[in-house]
Each structure stands twice: as structure tokens, then as C-alpha cells.
Amino acid sequence: MNRLGYRSPATFDKDAQEFYNVIHKYLMETYKGKVPLRNMAADGTLGGPFATHLHTPLVGQHFHGLGSAVEAIPGLTPFQREIAILVTASKYRANYAVAAHLVKGPAVGFAKQDIESIMSGQCPSSLKDDGVAIYKAADYLVNCSGSLPEEMYDQLITHLGTDGTKHLVHLVGFYSYLMVVLNGFDVQAPDDAVAGI
């Protein structure tokens, strides 16, 4: 569910149809035809942030383009990316994002207790130096005001290099935007979304 509701293809204008086509192709390629219920229903209706962006498809096109561009920045492993995403989710508590990443975390190597630690605002003791640097920087970016402290920035450069640091900062910014949208429109994961992933 979301506050804007779901749009049927019968109601699409040109912009909505173009956005739908891009997202449908992306989801089918990403999930090899087995798209999670949280993203697309069996009848093809889009869910999650994709459903809300159908109401502003030009924004949706840019949202998807930005997400793809951020993901293409080199320098972070899927596990490292997930640290930053989970820290951001722990700040905003967007229902849809939390449900999605409670599933995605273990898929990239997170133990359940480590996810629980991050979601409760604690850095897991199992993280190595690079993971600790990512956790601290992401936590600062979503929970504090002002510039990232030089010491934290230097730690990122040491462990991730310039590309990884750029990736991390853009990733936290992108997911912060995403979670504000999810919370603003009260986007919920379907009750059976976790089982259907």
C-alpha cells in the first residue's frame, strides 16, 4: 500500500508508460523474471517506490537513472554497500526498505545478529576495519549535521580509495532521498513480500 495508490496501465499517459516500460525491463532483467512481490504484483502492477513514481514519472525516470548511476560507481562490494544502506534504513525506518533489506542483507553475507545490531544503532563487532569506517561515516551522514569529519573521510580513503568513497557518499544520499519518499507516501511492503522474495 501507499498513500497515492496504484496506477493501472489503462490510466497511463505517455510519460507513465515510458517509465513503466523502463522499470518493467529493469526488474525482469535484475530478478531474471522472478520479481519480488514488493516490487511488482503478478499482474504487472508496480509496487514500492516504483508505484509512487508512476504518479510523477519524470521524477521516476531521474530517480531510476540516478540509482543506476550510483550503483555503477566502482569501489564498493555488495556487502559494503549493504552496510551503508542498513545504516540509512536504521535512521529512516521506512517499512518497505527495512523489509527489503532484512532479506537482502543475508543474501550478501550478513548474519541476522549483525543486521539487528545495525538496525538498533550499533556497529557490529564482526565488521572489519573497512566495514567500521563505512558504518561510522554513514551513521554520521544520516544522524549528524555539518561536514563529514576529516578523520572519517581519511579512513574511507584509506580503506575504500577515492572511488569507493564517492560511491559511499552518493549511496547514502540516494537512499536517504528514497526513504524520505517511502515515508512521505507511507509505502508499505506487502504482508507476503518477504515470503515472496
From TrEMBL:
<protein>
    <recommendedName>
        <fullName>Carboxymuconolactone decarboxylase-like domain-containing protein</fullName>
    </recommendedName>
</protein>
<dbReference type="InterPro" id="IPR029032">
    <property type="entry name" value="AhpD-like"/>
</dbReference>
